[in-house]
Every structure is written in C-alpha cells, then in structure tokens.
Input
Amino acid sequence: MQLRSVEGGALQRIGSAGYLIGALLLVVASLLLPRASDLGNVQAMQRTFAAQAVLLQACALLYAFGYWAVLIGTVGVSRAITAAGAAWADLGRSFALVATALWTLGFALDVAYAAALATWLAAAPAGKPAAYSIVAVLSPLGFGRGLFPLTVIVNGLAFTFLGVGMVQSTVYPRWGGSGGLLLGAAGVLLGIVQTFTGRERALTLFIVLEALTILWLVGVGGWLAWNTRSSRRGAGRTNGKDSAPNQGLEVTTTRTTG
Output
C-alpha cells in the first residue's frame, strides 16, 4: 500500500491569507479608482484620467498586488486537493498562473497609459498629436481592446476548473466549489461577449462579476481561516500524537500488486 498526503493545514493558511488579502486590495483599488462621468466621450474621459494619473497608477499597482495575492491563495487551495479533483485543481492553478500574467501585463499598460495621458495633457499644442498617438496605442481602445476580454476568459477558466476540483474534493465545502464554478462560467461568457462588444459596453456586468468574486474570496478565505483554527484547537485537545498530523489533510491511498 502506497500512501500520499499533503500538509493541508499549512496550505489552507496560505489559501486563506492570499484570498483575504487579495480581496482587501481589490476592494481598496476599486474604491480609489478614478471615474469619468461620461465613458462615451473618450477625450473627456482621458482628460479626467490624465488629471489623476498618479492615482490611476497607484490603483493599477493595488490591483496587481491584489491579483498576485489571489494567485498565492489559489496555489494554496489547489495544492491541498490531492485525491478526488486533483487534476481539475491542477488545471485551475495553471490557468490562474496565465491569468495573473495577463492581469500583470494589463496593469503595466495602465501605468504606462496614465503616464502617456499626463504627458499628452502637459504637451505644447504642437506636440499634442504625437503625444496622443501614444495614448491611443496604450488606451483600452488600443492594445487593451483585445487583451482585457481574453484575460477575463482565462481568469474565468481558472475559477471554473478550480471550482470543479473543490466540488469533487473532500477538503472544501460544496458551496465554495459551486460558487467558483458559477463565477468562472460567468467570466468565460462575459469575456466572449466583450471580445466582440468591447469592455465599456459590458462594464457594468464586469463590475458585478468582480464584486461577486470578491465576496467569494472573502467567503472561502474566511472559511479556511475558521477551519484551520478549529483544526488547531482540535489537535490541541488531543493527547495522542498520531491523530494531530492528519488535521486538514486529504489522503490518497493506492494499492500495488506484485
């Protein structure tokens, strides 16, 4: 008999910290993000963003750190699934890595976009056309036009596969896996729609999806923190040394013949 186990307690603590910190950073970034009154008036919107270029760059950094924290949480959550659902969890983790790389690229473009806006706004009249050409390339209507919806799709696939793995595992509550699965499927559909319509026309739907995702991160992260604390208390009340190491573990047992 061959036995394989993973220290679920430590992985769940990583998952909890990553999800809770990531959710906090995403909330702060969303609240601080500069907003334009009329998204249909592109140049008016760009002037608003140019006047708050530093804040826009700070928000891009907060978003980046938030998604990095979520990736850390996803690694912890997925690696604790070692029996049923492990293959799906591995797929979810792989897509999460790709999605985080795409988010990072997008936020790097946002930092450059804010700097280009400030340069355009401060440029002399003769230099404004050349400065604006850079703004046009870096804007959400330029390079970001195709990057954003594809990022939403890949991110949705990450949540979908991770949700399936959580549902099939014995480590996590079914509501957590089902919620991740539904959020992921909604993200894939929204990304497909935005591929053809652009981000702005479906921006409200994305904001709703992001809010629900943050709630899911808080819910799963909070459950992980509570479960880990309960496991520690249970281990502390146990006098025997053999039962404590199995707290928070998922064990795979295989039989070998020969």
User: Anything to note?
Assistant: DSSP finds eight helices and two strands in the chain. The longest helix spans residues 86-122.
